[in-house]
Specification:
Number of helices: 15
Oligomer: single chain
Radius of gyration: 21 Å
Order of helices and strands: HHHHHHHHHHHHHHH
Distance between the termini: 25 Å
Strand content: under 5%
Number of strands: 0
Structural class: mainly alpha
Helix content: over 70%
Number of domains: 1
Length: 432
């Protein structure tokens, strides 16, 4: 068990590193081609996309990995029932947002150009849902090579298309460039689906009943994933509402919308983008810890605590190395990547607190694998309330755009504190 976890994590880290390096080149190219206006447009619409993506998958990928690890004999039923649930959800979601995208863009995001971008992103949702289900299947089976190969292939194709065509579209207009960039993402999702499909077992024990939607099984899956879904929806809703709340409050305080949108682009598109570079490492640990602990919790509970300590120690060690690098070379790295240091002042403020931020993903995954979904919900809700209540108060107290930085710091502290509190509580009562 331990060797499998270490080997899979190692492969995922290497694969994630390659994907991240390719992503760097992609980020450098598209930010330089699209300039601040194009990056700000993507930053403005992306929170909405994240919320829609969470709804479209209904948090089922996390549950699928867990269920397949625990119930190998029912994997066909798990996959096909998940597929039908996601497809029905996607059809409803796409229909609703196609109808209201114009109103939403003009009156909520305050930029009519976002309407077309949202429509393009809506088309990607079914493909991402399907690939998420297939990836979750491979994680549940602890076969991570197909996922790595798919991710790397997707980034290579995206990089090629950006180098070859994006400059031509950006010459027409900023909007044309952004639209083409989003179409590239759509195309790459389709390619990713076909690559993953090729890796599926040729001999799959599937009966005719497995193809059909099982209502009882479907309801059971939705009920099981519901706390995780609500937690993810809370997080996605927070990300979705952040630019809306920030923009409207700062406009009320007399700041121009163009200044707010540009600075939010610097904050999210540059500072946060660099600070979240270790995400591939965190995702590798998180994706592997769920099936590993799911198997242990009913068979050998004593091995869970040492495993958790090892994962958290590895996370802290890696994050401290990264923080140390940014402390001395952060400004140079930002300039090299984006050709600007406009977001460095935000990065400098957040940097000391992101050691704690890197613990969030592993802690949440550990709680989910221990069937503590209700605790994950509590963490998401409390941290969201703290973040946006403090954001509102700070803006009203004339802290200006820096209010978003201070509210983010308070949110990080609340998530990590509550996560450790619930873990300590779980192990205290479980081992009595």
């Amino acid at each position: 068990m331990k060797n499998r976890l270490i080997i899979n994590t190692f492969y995922l880290i290497i694969g994630g590193l390659i994907t991240k390096v390719l992503g760097f080149f992609i980020k450098i190219l598209y930010t330089r081609y699209l300039k601040a206006d194009g990056v700000s447009l993507i930053t403005l619409v992306f929170p909405t996309y994240t919320l829609l993506l969470t709804i479209s998958t209904l948090a089922l990928p996390t549950l699928i990995s867990k269920l397949i690890a625990e119930h190998k004999s029912r994997k066909s039923k798990i996959i096909f029932t998940s597929f039908w649930i996601c497809m029905i959800t996607n059809i409803v979601l796409i229909g609703l947002f196609f109808l209201f995208s114009n109103y939403f863009s003009k009156n909520i995001l305050h930029d009519a150009r976002c309407s077309t971008l949202i429509k393009i992103l809506l088309i990607t949702l079914p493909f991402i849902s399907i690939t998420s289900i297939i990836k979750a299947y491979f994680f549940g089976e602890e076969k991570i090579i197909p996922v790595i190969f798919s991710n790397i292939s997707e980034e290579i194709i995206k990089l090629f298309l950006i180098i070859t065509f994006l400059r031509k579209f950006i010459m027409k207009s900023t909007l044309s460039g952004v639209k083409f960039y989003l179409f590239i993402s759509l195309f790459c999702e389709i390619v990713s689906f076909f690559i993953l499909f090729l890796f599926l077992p040729k001999k799959f024990n599937i009966s005719k009943l497995d193809y059909k939607y099982d209502n009882n099984f479907g309801i059971k899956m939705i009920k099981t994933s519901f706390p995780v879904l609500i937690s993810k929806l809370i997080n996605s809703f927070g990300f979705f509402i952040e630019p809306i709340l920030l923009t409207n409050l700062l406009i009320c305080k007399g700041l121009p919308s163009k200044y707010i949108i540009l600075n939010y682009g610097y904050y999210q598109g540059y500072a946060i983008a660099i600070l979240t570079i270790p995400s591939f490492f965190l995702m590798s640990l998180s994706n592997n810890i769920i099936p590993a602990i799911s198997k242990l919790k009913n068979k050998n509970k004593e091995k869970i605590k040492p495993l958790i300590k090892k994962v958290l120690s590895l996370t802290i060690t890696g994050s401290l190395v990264f923080i140390f690098i940014l402390m001395f070379f952060g400004k140079s790295i930002m300039y090299y990547l984006y050709g600007t240091t406009s977001g460095f002042k935000y990065l400098k403020v957040l940097l000391p607190f992101f050691t704690l931020f890197y613990l969030e993903s592993p802690i949440i995954s550990i709680l989910q694998s221990l069937d503590q979904e209700s605790k994950v919900f509590n963490i998401s809700l409390i941290s969201l309330v703290i973040k946006y209540f403090s954001l509102t108060i700070l803006i009203l107290l004339n802290f200006g755009f820096n209010s978003i930085l201070y509210s983010e710091i308070l949110s990080i502290f609340s998530v990590v504190y509550l996560g450790f509190y619930y873990l300590k509580k779980y192990f205290y009562y479980s081992f009595q």
